[in-house]
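Q: Fold this one first, please.
A: Sequence and structure below.
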Amino acid sequence: MAARVPEPQLAAWRALLGAHAAVITRVEQALAAAGLPPLAWYDVLWAVRESPQRRARLGELAARLTISRGGMTKLVDRLEQAGLLRREPALNDRRGAYAALTVAGETTLKRMWPTYSRILAEIVGPLRAAEANTLRRLLREIEARATAPPTQAPRPGATAKREAPRSRPPRRQAKA
């Protein structure tokens, strides 16, 4: 039997998904109208910029940005072709690679931010500080629950109290 999610919590979940999709759509539209790269490019460039020495392992980027490893490889390929990132070999792992931010990548981030921040200012700017802090706290709680190890739910029909194990197996009846 599936767990029941109370309607207020389910409505909150739907609102979160709807808000996220609407904000991403607005940002993507604004970036495209300004002739700028897509938001996914910004996200990768920013994650690399914030990494130590402005370079990050591709697998770590994929996990941090919730993109499949294959998807991250393709995205980094496009960013590298555009001259915004360069791949650097990982010295201690022949198969591994780092994505390193280029000067052009830094410049692209700076060109994208005014458009991105304008949309964010329109959408979340009107929140009072207390509202923004409450929203952040609640979203961090959801994130913490989502990233915590899953709890093991009891199997359907399982009882909470188990029978004590028998000290010896039951005797078999002799066949006649």
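Q: Good. Now the second chain.
A: Here it is, same layout.
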Amino acid sequence: MDAGRVLDDLRELARLTGGPDGARRVCWTDEWVRAREFLSACLEELPVEVSVDPAGNLWAELPGRGDADGFVIVGSHIDSVPAGGWLDGALGLFAALGALRAHADGGPPPVGLRLVDWADEEGARFGRSLFGSSACAGTLDVDDVRDLRDRDGDRLEDVVARQGVELDRAHESGERLSGARAYLELHIEQGPVLESRGEPAATVLGTCGVERHVAVFRGQAAHAGATPMALRHDSFAAAAQAALAIRDVGLAHEGGVCTVGGATSEPGVVTAVAGRTDMLLDQRHLDPGELAAMLGEARAACERAAADQGCEVALEHLWSIPPIPFDDRLIAVAREAVADSGGKDTAIPSGPLHDAAEMARLVPTVMIFSSSSPPVSHTKEEDTPEADLRVALEAYGRTVTATLELAAAGELPARG
């Protein structure tokens, strides 16, 4: 793995598709097409076959030695959120390119090596994340997404068609997984854990399960001046009380997080007690039992707050995904690789979702995180010290090599 060359690629991508406000690579836009053109130009230097599947995912295949069957997948995504960072997604994709270069230069790998650039991981334009990888994994319901609209009113089905994607055939991308032996992804942490520990990189245990609800508190709208405090049925007060209690739920479950992302009230004027308040709730944990317990405790907190404020409450389900653990064998490989590359034998869960979560449903999967410093993402301030990036890149390269050897030894059977 030539870490210096990977970093040069990332800087050139930022120059081509960035600006004063950050990265501009929102999927299905001209900037995203320009980013892919840069990737394709880099791939032209290698003995790989490049193609795009029915879901819009770009693949580059480096054949293995002799009659070795199957392949290991390396990749991430090149799309960004509006005004995003220079590393989110792109780090993993150009690390995968670095892995292709390394194994092309050293002769054919023991089994095939395939790079993938997943289409629309971010979901920034239509609000549906993991589009390409979920289509490939078979979890995308096209009827749920075809009529999604962007801020200009354009339908998802029409927009992806202009990029050559026929939505009703997107699930055919799953054929690309026939023969897959493993999936490996490098990503920035996007959070403060590694920075707070002074560690450059870590292995990822899996992606946290997510429960998203809206808690609907119903009280009684009333005149702010004419209604005594003790006689109010204030839905916003109930939501505020519940929000503080839900914060304590997150603190009580190690490794879990609870987030009240916002609240909106009706009638929403300064002279009226709020008759209805909708409160957004996001909860995450790697352990399914802990996640279920957190949800139960949040529900109870909402019910107590509603009763205390003379209101009623109902939790309406928005979306959920179970915890998705990564492969124990590959976790062990990655942990050793991180330690041998200058990091520590550390493994942490991922709160954010990644394309690896979709792949882990079907093939052995692991991720490696680099630190984030400052510990933010989806913003132009996103960054990581170069020394930390080099440790993560070396660890990823070692993990790719070790995984190829495991596959060649028959310890990672090819997917049928």
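Q: Anything worth noting on the second one?
A: The mean pLDDT is 96.
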